[in-house]
Structures are given as structure tokens and as C-alpha cells.
Amino acid sequence: MCGIVGYIGSGNVYDILIKGLHRLEYRGYDSAGIALVNDAGKLAVYKAKGKVHNLEEYCNDKPKEEAVAGIAHTRWATHGEPSDHNAHPHYSEDGNLALVHNGTIENYQLLKDALIEQGCTFKSETDTEVLVQLIEYIKVKNDCSLLDAVRKALHEVVGAYAIAVLEKDNPDTIIAARKSSPLVVGIGDGEFLLASDATPIVEYTKDVVYLKDEEIAILQRGKPIQLVTLENEKAEIDVKKLELSISQLEKGGFPHFMLKEIFEQPKTLLDCIRGRVIDNGKKVMVNGVIDNKLKFIRAKRIVIVACGTSWHAALIGKYLLQDMCKIPVAVEYASEFRYSRPVLDNNDVVIAISQSGETADTLAAVKIARKMGAFVYGISNVVGSSIPRETDSGTYIHVGPEIGVASTKAFTGQVMVLTMLALSVAQLRGTMTDKEITEIAREILTIPEKVDNILKTLNEKVKNMSLIYTYARNFLYLGRGYSYPVALEGALKLKEISYVHAEGYPAAEMKHGPIALIDEEMPSVIIAPKDHLYDKIVNNVQQVKARGGSIIAVVTEGDDLISQIADHVLEVPKVSECLTPIITSIPLQLISYYIAINKGKNVDMPRNLAKSVTVE
Question: At what angle do helices 447-469 and 580-598 cross, to 10 degrees?
Fold first, then answer.
């Protein structure tokens, strides 16, 4: 959610931090701030409600050129309303320290009350100011170093954090630490960069260190990076190479990242498939499955945990795994799973899905599942993120950085990985014949080209059609079988970026309540490919039409029945039933994009949303 950037070195500190904040805008935020320190020991904090450009305007006439180190932040409000005084960084009471923080300090009120008793006063409603005041109090009372004060303070904290601290009297050092919230250090030529993800770093270095839980980084000018634990024990420094490139973080001629990422899907799906469907489709090789084949062969049950769009992919995964592998599958919201007193043992496989690999609820579910003895398998997009590190094994979807808050290419990448995972498990368990597996695997190889054709043939059609529906206030999305989760995902996309109320339903459930809503002002989007439930969905289309509802239907090419009933038909290529979710989701992404554009919405950064939900 919130974004952290830090820099210490000989470069222009202010410019590097501001550029880094812009790189992190996709995460979602409502205020921004920056702290700069110079060699003379002057520590200045500037912050502003709203976007990063508001902060830049505020800083126009402020001294900043002499800075030698700095930290910056984009805040997504949790404790206290979006405002200048609640924005980060926060000062300690005497102005000696400045701190930025991602995460949530759960026991902040207890700590705050104790500090007030000791004479501390507070200027904000945030949990973050409590932490910086606590560090300063410990430092003064114990006459200790900033590092020791940070260690002692974090021992008192309950909750999640990624922090970076500057000290006025020690401008050559930034102290950073993390627990359950991501933080990565970039190692440059005589400089260090710090960020909540790698996007602000890639322009300057490819060498990074991902901090582990309860690790503290000491970043000093002219010295190598140091890592210690909260117990002050030396930690291993594991330098990784970034796989990002600057071109992946730019719009590439598209007006928005979301549209760029929709159109990237032919390539990202190809990258997702590459090396996993081999020998012209005769074999599906998902290494995480092959390396742990006994876990999947002996599994009595699979539980999939996820949130949001990833949860919709998980529902599709349930259909895939049950159909192909003949194993019972449960799908849980990670946010509910962690509090539902789950029953797991070593015969269970838990699959955790998260685009960012940092989703707080999903990460918590992973830790619970491992503690209970289950084998935990992660599906993520971000190399080096927390979920891949915390799980026993897993698979990356390899779709590249997704900047638009509303997920598109990550969703289809997740579904593709789940499809290949199901085929790979089916091979091991012998629940499908070689011929059945080869037929689907060979068809998988054609999916990128088919998605490319959909985008070429439907983009302008959807763009024009969306003008008719721009002012609709409600939408109903309907589907059956594999198309039901697609309906949920289509409705979510419309809600996220156009702020239009939309609901996804299993089409058979329509008559159990939602049919009461249907009239000439309530459009229905019906996902109706030619599958074994086609005749059933035709009945639902007719029921909507009989009540005067307007219908947008996603159908298989050549459909000559629904096309006579629906007001608008979007044709997609015929594919095997298990592959339809990837194909049918593409026109729904375009519908949500163009309706939002027509309504003048910020599709890349919708209000109140964050790309990576790193707080509960």
C-alpha cells in the first residue's frame, strides 16, 4: 500500500527520492512527504496531502540542494485522516529523528499512553509518530546509538512494519528494518537506495538485498551494507540481481498502464507458458510440482487462499484441480481463513496466490498453514517477495511488473499457471490420459495468439459500445461453471476503476433474488461460451431479455443463437472449456477500461485502492 523510498550517496537526493515516489504512485496513497538531512546536521521534513506533484509544488522554494541523505513516503491512511500533519515522515518531539513507516502498529495506543505519561506530546493521530517518539525516548533514556534504540523499540512493537529512520546528528546513516512488510535495499556505486519494492531502484542498480523479517539494515556512506537481527546478531547478506527494466515501468505509447497491460497479455502469457509446456505439448513441467511430487500425489485435499482478483483465479483453480486431478479443493478468502480456526494437517496442500507476494492476509494464512504442518505452495509475480520466501515451494507467473491497480495480466497469468499446475499434478496422479493432457497442452500453446486476435478484433468494438453504457449505475455479470469466477472478476474490474456498482453471480442464482433488479436500466454482461452448460446459459439470457434487460454477451465465434437475443455480442475463439476463463476475461477487461475512461476516471490509480495490500 504505502510506499517508501530512501537514498544516501553523492547523487541529487531530492530528485532521486521524488522520482522514486512517482514510481510508487501505482501502489495507492493519499499524501506524500520527504525528509532531507545535510552534512551540517540540518534535518528538514516537507509533506503535503494529495499527490506527489503537490509535494513537489510545496518544495519548490524549500532548501534541498545540500542534502546528503533522505527518506520519502506515500501514505495510504490507516490511523488518522489524510492530511498534512498525518503524512509521513514524522519527527521525534525534539526534531532529532525522522521516520517513515509502512504497516500497522497494533499496540500503538498502549505505547502512546505510556509515552504521554513520560511527558511526550503528539502532533498527529498516526501509529507511526508513536514509533518515532518511542525510538527517541529509548535513545535518550539509555544514552544509546540509533541502531540500539531502533532494536529496543521494535521489541516493544506488536504489528507489521517497514521503517526507515534518519538522525540529524548522524547524516551519514539510514537505519531500516522490516517485519511482515516489504523492504529492499539497492546497492549502487558508493550509494544505497531503499524502497518498499524495486521499482524506484532499477534505474540505478541491479544489485539488491531483500530484508527478511526482523532484520535491520545499516546504510552508511562509504561503507558496505550491514545487516543485523533484532537480537543484534549479524545476518547473512544475500545480494540478488533485479530482472526489471526501465522500459517495463513506462507506458510505451499507451495512454494508461492498464491498457498497456491488457495489450501485453499475448506476450506475458507466452512468458508464463515458456519452459513449462514442452516437447510440442507432450509434457507439462511445473518444477515446483515435480520437485515435490509426493506431496501432490499423497494430498488428500487442496486449500487455496487468496484475496481480490487472486481469489477469483483461485475459484477457477478449484474447477481445474477438481476436474483434472480428482481431488477435493476448498477456496478461502485469506482474510477469513486466518481467523476461521482452520483444520489442516500434513496431508493437505495449501496454495497461496498473490500478485505482489506481499498481501498481508495471504502471508498470514501461509504462516498459519505451515505452522499446522500443511505443505504450502506459493503463486506470485514478484521475485524475492515475502510469499515465495515463506512457502515451501511455488511458481512465478512471470508477467512482468503490473503497475495498474486493477489487475489484468496478473489475473490471466495466475489462471494459466493454475491450469499448467493442474495438468502437471494430473500427470503425477494418473487422473488424465496422456492424450487428454497433450490435447490441452497443445491448445495452451495457441492461447497467446488467440488473445492477440481478440484484442485486435474487439478493442474498437468495445470502445464504441462502452459509450452506450457509460451512464449505467448498476451492472449484473452472470456466468456458469468456469465462467462464474470470470463474471465475478468482470464485475470487480468495473467497480474498481469506474466506481459503478456491479455484481457477479452464478447465472442459476439469478432467479433466487437478483432477477428482481433487472429492468431496462440494468445491463447484464453474460459470459456464454460454447461449453457443456451452454443450453442452461441460453435460458438465463432469455430470462433477462424477457424482463427488458439490456444484454452484452461474450460468446464463442459463430454463435447463432445468443447473437439473435443479445443487444451486443463479443465473439471469442473456441477453446477447450478449461481454457475459456483466459479467453473470456479479455473483453471484460476492455469493457471496464473504456467505461471508466468515458467517465473520466483515473484508471491506473482508482480512489481508495492500493496495488499491494500490505496491511490487514
Answer: 30
User: Which residues make beta-bridge pairs with 379?
Assistant: 353, 395
Length of the chain: 616
Residues annotated as catalytic (active site), given as ranges: 2, 611
C-alpha cell at 380: 506470485
What span, in angstroms and rounded, lies between the C-alpha atoms of 548 and 532? 27
Q: Is the peptide bond before 606 cis (omega within 30 degrees of 0)?
A: no
* 25 φψ region: left (φ > 0), alpha (ψ -120 to 50), beta (else): alpha
Which triple of cell numbers denotes residue 275?
519452459
Number of CB atoms found within 10 A of residue 83's CB? 17
Q: What is the pLDDT of residue 610?
A: 58
Contact (CB, 8 A) for 51 and 24: no
Of 178, 185, 163, 173, nearest to 239 (Cα)? 185
Whole-angstrom Cα distance, residue 70 to residue 85? Answer: 19
CA–CA dist 31, 85 (Å, integer): 10
Q: What is the pLDDT of residue 518?
A: 78
Burial of 546 (0-12, 13-18, 19+ CB in 10 A): exposed
Instruction: Look up the pTM and report it.
Output: 0.77
Runs of H (alpha helix) within 42-107: 52-59
User: Beta strands of 517-613 (E only): which ranges?
Assistant: 524-528, 551-556, 568-572
Set of cell numbers at residue 477: 455479470
pLDDT of the residue at 360: 86
Mean pLDDT by 10 residues, the chain (616 residues): 88 93 80 92 90 90 87 82 84 91 89 92 89 94 95 92 94 93 90 90 90 94 93 92 68 85 95 91 90 94 96 97 96 91 93 91 93 95 86 93 88 97 96 95 96 96 94 92 96 94 86 76 91 88 82 94 93 96 97 95 77 57
Distance CA 178, CA 267 (A): 35
Contact 352, 366 (CB under 8 A): yes
Task: Report yes or no: 168 and 95 within 8 Å, Cβ to Cβ.
Answer: yes
Query: Phi first, then psi: what are they for 212, rounded to 5°?
Result: -95, 165
Are 398 and 378 a contacting pair, CB within 8 Å?
no
Q: Give a three-class secondary structure readout of 477-543.
A: EEECCCHHHHHHHHHHHHHHHHCCEEEEEEHHHHHHCHHHHCCCCCCEEEEECCCCCHHHHHHHHHH
Partnered with residue 303 across adjacent β-strands are 330, 350
